[in-house]
Each structure stands twice: as structure tokens, then as C-alpha cells.
Amino acid sequence: MNTYEAAGVDIAAGERAVELMKSKVARSRRPEVVDDASGFAGLFDASFLLRYERPILATSTDGVGTKVMLAQQYGKHDTIGIDLVGMVLDDLVVVGAEPLFMTDYIACGKVVPERIAEIVGGVAEGCRLAGAALVGGETAEHPGAMGADEYDLAGAGTGVVEASRMLGPERVREGDVVLAMASSGVHSNGYSLVRHVIKQAGLSLDAELPELARPLGEELLEPTRIYSLDCLELARAVEVHAFSHITGGGLCGNLARSLPSTLDAVLDRGSWTPPAIFDVLAGHGEIGQESMDRTFNLGVGMAAIVPAEAVDPALRLLSERGLPAWVLGEIVAGSGNAVYR
Q1: Strands across the sheet with 133-141, in order?
Q2: What is the CATH number of the domain that holds 201?
Q3: Which Pfam families did the record assign (predicted)?
Q4: Residue 10 — pLDDT band, cuts 50, 70, 90?
Q5: Which of 82, 121, 222, 240 has the most CB atoms less than 10 A away?
Q6: Does 78 map to a domain?
Q7: Residues 155 and 194 in one domain
Q8: 117 with 189, same domain?
Q9: CB 190 within 8 A of CB 299
């Protein structure tokens, strides 16, 4: 007799995964979360929006890309969810929005409850770090479409910003200063090239390379730094004109998105030393500087554009919060590009 289980879908395993993740998800709870006994929807009390004059909702959706393949290969699943949150919620803060809540979606070849709970636990931890609530999600078993140990994940988030406090290119002025905020490593972009380098160079994820203080796999799976609370606190404390989340396309490509068409950001490449993992990738992969610039964050995960008088208090605040930051460049007359001097 044919059954769903015979087709490869284990309903009991899915139910156990839900039970295992409940306590992890609870750690991301915000006061506005409303319980839905049915579990069909995530509920969030929006009455707090009444304190806004003109609340603008912001939304973002993303995945983690092929970094999940390294997580599967290395057998480490508890931080890939943090990467997902970084990719989704840190996009919201670029316009000045406070992340409110997020939902996730995991597709897998076979539900292994403990593994799913680890993945969702990472998402919940990322939400906690961003000040948002994980209000729901879905785990789908796709036997035949994916291998038993394969999975992919995606998510969507919602935030809110007062219309008069929205940040963006229209606020940027000539004479402003670009501040860099350090990345925790490669974050979640460029992993197709990372995996190509590993394969071409014959490297093992267990390799202990002289340039690195830990095995290669651990270095590459370092979770994305979450900037949401740091950026929101910075925008409350000093005048901020724009943020730029440094993801796919690299530093110059993303920073240009936060510039008006009449101004350029001129950056000082000598103002920082990229983490060693980027030298490892460039060396073993024989990757030129232009490709490195266009593919990776090179140690800068977020940038802020502030007036010159805000530089010192901004750097002081970020240092107090434990986030390395420095002056990266300046805003000059131009045509909407970010370039190195």
C-alpha cells in the first residue's frame, strides 16, 4: 500500500523537528508577538505603529546561496541561519528601518529533526541579535528532488521606519565621510567562487593553513555579522545620511547604490587590512584584485555615510559596542560611483 511515508515524506520527523525548535524560537520573541494556537500564521500586534506619524513598512527576502553546500559538507548547521538573518534583516536597516519580524523556509531531501532544529535555532539567534522576532516558517521535505542530506533555506523580513527618518542617497552631501564597519569574514556572498577555488586547489575543509588560526571550513562558515542594532543605535545617536550593506557586488558596487548621481565616494584602500581568508582565496584561486573587489566584502560588511562632524562620536559609539569601524573615504562631486583613490 502506498503512503506518504513510502514516498519519502516523514510526517512524524517533521513534527519532532517542530518540537525541538520551539525553545530556540522563543528566544527571539518580541512583546508584539501574538500567539496563534493553530500555527498557520505568524501574528504581530501592529498597534504600536500608532505612535508613528507616517510609518513606512520595509520588506526584504533572500537566501544564503551556496554557502549551505559547505555547511552540509562540513556538517555544521547551527550558524547558517544567522547568515540568512544577516542577508535579510540588514537590508532593512539600510533605509533606517527597525526589523520587526521574520519568517523562514527550509526545503530538504529528508527531515532530520535535530538538523532542522539546529538550522532554525540559528535563524532564531540571528533574529535575537537583530532585535526581531521569528514569527513562523515552513519546513518542506522534497524526496527525489533533493538528496537526503541536502537542504536550502530562504527567509523574508519586515521592518518599519518613520517616513521623515528614512535614509538614502537623497540625504548624502558633498563633504560627507564614509565609515566602514568590519565584517566577520566572507559572510554569505561569493561562495560559488569559494567552492570553485577549493575544488581547483584541492583544498580540504579540514585543512589547517598557516595563514589561518583555525581549519578552513570553520573560517568559511563563520556566520555573517548582524549590524541591525548597531546601525539603529548609530542613527539615533548621530546624524546618518545613508547606510550600505556590502553583499554581492562588493564594496564599490553596493556603496554606489547609496549615492546620488552627482556624487562619488572616494575610498582609501590603505585604510584597512582585509582578513587573512581573502588572501587565502586570492592566492589559491589566482584571483585578480578586480574580481576580488567585485565578488567579496574584503572585510567591510556595512558602511555608513555621515557628516564630517559626526565621525568622532560615531566611531566612539561603534567601538563601545564592540564593532571595529574606521574612516574609509569621503564624498566628492562626481557621477554616482564608488572608487578607490
Answers
A1: 55-63, 151-162, 98-108, 133-141
A2: 3.90.650.10
A3: AIRS, AIRS_C
A4: low
A5: 82
A6: yes
A7: no
A8: no
A9: no
Which amino acid, one-letter code, is at 257?
Answer: R
Residue 13: pLDDT band (50, 70, 90) is: confident
**H or E segment at 43?**
strand 43-44
Assess whether 326 and 229 both reside in one domain: yes
Q: Other C-beta atoms within 10 Å of 141: how many?
A: 23
CA distance 174 to 286: 38
Same domain flag for 63 and 175: no
d(CA 63, CA 103): 12
Contacts of residues 229-233 at CB distance under 8 Å and 24 or more positions apart, as own/partner, are 229/129, 229/130, 229/131, 230/181, 230/318, 230/321, 230/323, 231/90, 231/93, 231/302, 231/304, 232/93, 232/96, 232/98, 232/131, 233/317, 233/321
Name the DSSP letter for residue 65: T
In angstroms, rounded to a whole number, what is the distance separating the alpha carbons of residues 297 and 278? 9
- What is d(CA 272, CA 106) in angstroms, rounded to the nearest whole number? 37
pLDDT digits (tens, 9 = 90+) for 287-298: 999 999 999 999
Range(s) of the domain holding residue 23: 9-35+53-162
Lowest mean pLDDT: which of 24-38, 105-119, 216-230, 280-294? 24-38
In the block, residue with C-alpha cell 500567539: 35
Q: How confident is the model at residue 34 (pLDDT cuts 50, 70, 90)?
A: very high
Residue where a domain stops, chosen among 129, 162, 195: 162
In a shared domain, residues 243 and 191: yes
**Above 70 in pLDDT, residue 21?**
no
User: Do the domain assignments include residue 209?
Assistant: yes
Domain boundary among 141, 162, 183: 162
Q: Do 178 and 304 have their domain in common?
A: yes
Mean pLDDT of 259-269: 98
Residue 176, domain member (yes or no): yes
Percent of the residues in the chain that have a pLDDT greater than 90, as a whole number: 88
CA-CA distance, 161 to 57, in Å (whole number)?
7
CA pair distance 29, 210, nearest whole angstrom:
42
